[in-house]
């Protein structure tokens, strides 16, 4: 008669490691902190779409990007992140400081920007249009 026994190794019975829970805002803040150290960066593409960064996380990222004086190409995908007027304004103000920009592409679809946020983005477009291709 054939008998089957099940063997379980010690590694199979251990619980998987428990990683600390990090909110999207905390994650964006950590990315922003690291990004700010890349002072020679001239091209950045960031995709935070469908993550709940909110205005606080987006502002942290925007402020770090705005300090990267060598940037000439910026693509930010902030689709459906809970950006709001405050976040849109922070992005517009930060990017407006970058004098070397020649390409900006922004995706704010699915966010409620309000009149204030739309005005800030329109102001950014007007500010950089002469020296930069911009898609909002």
From TrEMBL:
InterPro entries: LRR_dom_sf. Residues 1-25 are annotated as: Disordered. Gene3D superfamilies: Ribonuclease Inhibitor. Residues 1-16 have a biased composition (Polar residues). This is Uncharacterized protein. It comes from Durusdinium trenchii.
């Amino acid at each position: 008669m054939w008998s089957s026994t099940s063997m379980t190794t010690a590694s199979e019975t251990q619980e998987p490691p428990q990683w600390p829970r990090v909110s999207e805002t905390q994650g964006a803040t950590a990315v922003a902190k690291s990004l700010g150290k890349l002072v020679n960066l001239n091209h950045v593409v960031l995709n935070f779409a469908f993550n709940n960064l909110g205005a606080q996380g987006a502002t942290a990222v925007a402020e770090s990007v705005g300090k990267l004086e060598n940037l000439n190409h910026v693509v930010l995908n902030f689709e459906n992140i809970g950006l709001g007027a405050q976040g849109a304004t922070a992005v517009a103000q930060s990017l407006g400081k970058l004098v070397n920009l020649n390409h900006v592409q922004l995706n704010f679809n699915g966010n409620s920007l309000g009149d204030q946020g739309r005005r800030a983005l329109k102001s950014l477009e007007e500010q950089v249009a002469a020296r930069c291709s911009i898609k909002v």
